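User: Is it possible to get a 3D structure for a protein together with its bound compound? The compound here is beta-D-fructofuranose. I've pasted both below.
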Amino acid sequence: MSHDPWRMGFHLMPPTGWLNDPNGLCQLDGTYHVFFQYSPDWPTPDAPRGWGHAFSKDLVHWSGDARFAIAPDTPDEASGAYSGCAVPVEGGARLYYTGNVKEPGNFDYVHKGRRANQILIEAVTDPAVPGGLVLGEKNVLLRNADYPAFCTCHVRDPKVWREGDAWWMVLGARDEDDRGLVLVLRSDDGRTWKNAGTVRSTEPFGFMWECPDRVALCGREWLSFCPQGMSERPWSNGMRDVSGYLSVPEGEKIGDAGELALDAQGFHLWDRGFDFYAPQSFVDEGGRTLLIGWMGMPEAPYESAPDALTWCHCLTVPREVTPGADGTPLQWPARELEALRGARHELAGGGTITLDEHRADVVVEHVAGSLELTLDGALAISWDGAELALRFLDGSVGCGRTERTVPCDNLYNLRVLIDNSAVEAFANDGELVFATRWFPRSDNLRIDTKGQSLCIIWEMGDGVAGTYE
Ligand code: FRU
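Assistant: Yes, that's possible. Here is the predicted structure of the complex:
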């Protein structure tokens, strides 16, 4: 795969096979750990799914192991070691995840036939082992009988945090009325958990909420989650599943709140592009909140593995999340990525440049009037004074992707990361973000710009080549 022209230079990919959600994000003794949903035997049908693992000192140069970090090798996770998180503790981390079990038989797997086990692994840091972490045994903490009676058997994706003496867990769930919600649990030790409440929406909002997360910035909280069943919403672009966040009213907390109902009208998509789902946040040892998403979608009508690739999907770059002027989260590429910048070019007042490698970091610090950036004549990112658009001019390069637009009457800055078959665009300090895969056929990267703005174009190096060698 390392010779595949579509492999990335600064987006994490699976060693082989399939990748989906980022899992277990944390920083321990200076090392960043990124686990992810991984099926090395994909595209074999029903290939086992567990956790893969990559790690890095600088968020740019990565190492990893092509084998499972967590293999679905016990009866409590027979149908997959599903998504979960990491909580740093003295000497290591606790890893929490869902063991998914589909019982053989004629079941609907919603109301019957599925077991959702929440499993804990205690991991110890050890600089002598590759990856620096030794994973201990698996302990099932919670089983179906432990969840409130109104839950179906869809309960998964634990995200755990500590505040004061308390440990809090959120779990994504589907209730017997087919409404998505989040279960909130509390623990004194991170091992024994008790139901402590729910977070719901004031009106029905999808049938299942996957991958819940709590983002806390300057004392305020947001519930991030992935509602399923959104295809009829005017803003969902027909996608069944989307990912976004709801703000928690000031003074309230997700833990501690008992029964919390959030106003679904305030739902905000994390990303306006084609390929973004199941993000997870974490706070690093320097206190930064970083967010990584899966640059893929469940149920998308467009392709992510054209021409029989033997691998599928990647993660976004780590995005630093900060509160904007009104408190709303902004997302910006982690500053470490600038270490990959090489030669610098400028295009003023429009022009064209062709780079040898298919990777660039394009920065427009001050947008002056309408602006258009076109990549390989196939993918245009444009602003006309009224809307910001990501548009495929050559449908074959989009593999079924067409266009995404968002109203925007004032664009003041724009940054576009181009990394072989991944593009991420950040506008207005990260208020609006678009992630998309694309499948260009040229080895060179051609960038055409139109408008009066000064575009700075950095060539970008490769930090992930050889990650799993
Ligand atoms: C989201 C998800 C999670 C689940 C995992 C399985 O993409 O469906 O809810 O834990 O993927 O791979």
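The longest helix spans residues 395-398. The mean pLDDT is 96.
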